[in-house]
Amino acid sequence: MRYARECANKWLLKEIEIITKDGAKLIIALGNDVKKWVEKQKIEEKFKINIVQLPHPSGRSRKWNNKNNKEIIYEIKNLLNNITELV
Question: Which of 7, 14, 45, 50 is 20 to 30 A off residue 25, Cα-Cα?
Fold first, then answer.
């Protein structure tokens, strides 16, 4: 986690600055670490950009690998259905 945070603080913030200047309107953030970083940095407020949070798609993710979990499918379908409203 420490290295991910260092990388985000050094590079990701700069990349977000670049893409928002180029007109990006939406970021899809994957995982809790990204969610925490985005909230701490107040990215949505600073850059006036929509951020959609989804679970990280790793093999260890319980949300993705639980066959009985319909929530993740609902979240993705909802995102796809509403994406035009976000951009």
Answer: 7
